[in-house]
Amino acid sequence: MTVADSPLRRMPGWLQPRRGFSPARLQATVAGRLVLITGASSGIGAACARLLAAHGACVLLLARREDELAALCADIRSAGGQAEYRVLDLNDLAAATAFAASLTATPPDFIISNAGKSLRRSVIDSCTRPQDIGRCLHVNFHGPVLLLQGLLPAMRARGSGGIVNVSSVVTRLPPAPLWSAYQASKAGFDLWFRTAGAELAGDGLRLGSLYLPLVHTPMSAPTGIYARVPGMTTDDAAACVARLVCRGDARLAPWWLWPLEVLAPWLGTGWRWLARRQFARGRH
What we know:
48% of the residues lie in helices and 14% in strands. It is an alpha/beta fold. The chain has one domain (16-282): NAD(P)-binding Rossmann-like Domain (Rossmann fold). Strands 3-2-1-4-5-6-7 form a seven-stranded parallel beta sheet, with helices on both faces. The radius of gyration is 19 Å and the shape is globular. Residues 1-6 have low confidence and may be disordered.
């Protein structure tokens, strides 16, 4: 179902990150190349898989849900594309490490680090649920780090490759009530990833970060208030990923994030008042 066919509201294009890309350049960049995509069974990952496969990439899809992965691979192949899948839950750190080790002889040319765990719950409510912070940290930080650490040496030895981290605008903004585990884990990986990019810049590897506002996906659907908030479609987000794949080492974000990020520390009391008001309205 598209945004036009559903009650979900689409965010105006001028509020989104720039998503234009040259189809010819994308074809030249990914055709015949192995592209590994995490969180690929639905949402942004599935949209990226379809887009990149349509431009000649050989996509290797990772996610937890085998039925959805198999169906997506079948769709891509029926359209003339090349796709394979592996079942992998990044919450299983040993499995993430083992899978990376299995690819060291033939590492991917590109990685789309897209898998994520969203959680909207107060700190107090999470006190009796230690699994909340544990799963967010594993899926949003530990698992992606272990996967990349297993693949980066081989990609570095080859001297080429690109990685796109599909992140969120919240990683660069002050704390948002009810999102402590999600925001902290995503921000931690964002900082690790940007540090890796700085260290590997001279080794032929290009690491790009994509900071997305709300995207209407199955992951965001359980948060009911999002149905009333304008958001990007998964195809919008995939186009942003394609733009970064073509550009390489870059950061892509909506234009309004930069001034908000700079001004937020100076807003002080006003920002904290808004945060408390948001918590009071949204905790129930």
